[in-house]
Amino acid sequence: MPNIGPLELAIVLIVALIVFGPKRLPELGRSMGRGMREFRSSIGGDHKDEMEDSPASAPVLEPPADTASSADEAAANRRD
Description:
The protein is mainly α. The chain has four helices and no strands. The protein has a domain at about 1-40.
């Protein structure tokens, strides 16, 4: 199997530049890198992203104590 040298890489880069254009090429590189990173993490068993997105780790937000609900206000008005 022949090795890929600098001349072959230059030809592939020139063809990619002609086909995709200079504005689209960086986006393609980023998306390919992101895809390769996700593939490696799925094979390696690195699932820290899944743990961060799980509902068990989400903080529970409670309403502020100083605000009264409309039901509480209606009950207070009936007592008066």
